[in-house]
Amino acid sequence: MFLTDHFGLSLGALVVWGFMMAFFFNIFLYTATPKKNLILLFSSFIMFISYFSSDSFFSWFSTTETYLHWAVWDLVTLSLILLFAKFIKDQKPTAFYYVCTGLLVNTVLFLAIYYDIYVKYTKEPWILWDIYSFGVNIADFVMIVALIVDRDFLGLVKLKACLSSLLKHKVAHPQA
C-alpha cells in the first residue's frame, strides 16, 4: 500500500483519538446547550466504540480476511446507527449523513481491496491501492470533522436534496 505500516498504525491511533474527541465534544454539547440531538450523540459514541474496538482487537483478526472483517465491522456500525436513528424521533443531523456515507465508502473500499488482493491475488501495487490508502483515511477524517462541526461542508446534504427532488420530478412527470 502507499502508506507504510508504521505510519498507518499512527494514523489509525489518530483516527480513534479524533472519534473520541468528537464524542466528548458531543457529550459537552448535549449537556450544555438547550438544542439536544440524541442521534448526533449516539452516532459519535458508536463511531468511537467501533473504531476503538476494531483498533484494539486488530491482532485478533489480522488474518487474510482483515479487509473483509473491517467491511463487516463498518456495516455493523452503520446498521446500529441507522437502527437507532429509526427509533429516535429527533431530526437527523447533517453529521448523520456524512457518517453513513463515510462508512459506505469505507466498506466499498475494504471489499474492493480484499477482492483485489485475496481473490484475484494481485501482488503489484496499482491505482486501486492508492485510492484505498487515501480514500479510507479521507473518509475517516471527514466523518470526524462532520461529527464535530455538524455542517454540510462538502455539500453532501444539498446533493441528496437535489437528487431526491430530481427523482420525485421524474416520477411525477414520466416521459411518454
Keywords:
176 residues, mainly alpha, 6 helices
Gap between N and C termini, in Å?
51 Å
For the secondary structure, the number of strands is: 0
What proportion of the residues form beta strands (DSSP E)?
Answer: under 5%
Number of helices: 6
Mean pLDDT: 88
Q: Which class of secondary structure composition applies to the elements?
A: mainly alpha
Task: Name the shape in a single word.
Answer: globular
Strand count, sense and barrel status of the largest sheet are: none
Rg calc:
18 Å
Q: Low-confidence spans: pLDDT under 50, at least 5 residues? A: none
Residues in helix, %: over 70%
Listing every helix as H and every strand as E from the N terminus to the C terminus, the arrangement reads: HHHHHH
Tell me what the structure shows:
With 176 residues, the chain is mostly helical. It is 77% helix and 0% strand. It is built from six helices and no strands. The longest helix is centred in the N-terminal third of the chain and has 28 residues.
Element layout with pairings:
Layout: H1 5-32, H2 38-56, H3 66-87, H4 94-119, H5 127-149, H6 156-172
Helix pairs in contact: 1-2, 1-5, 2-3, 3-4, 4-5
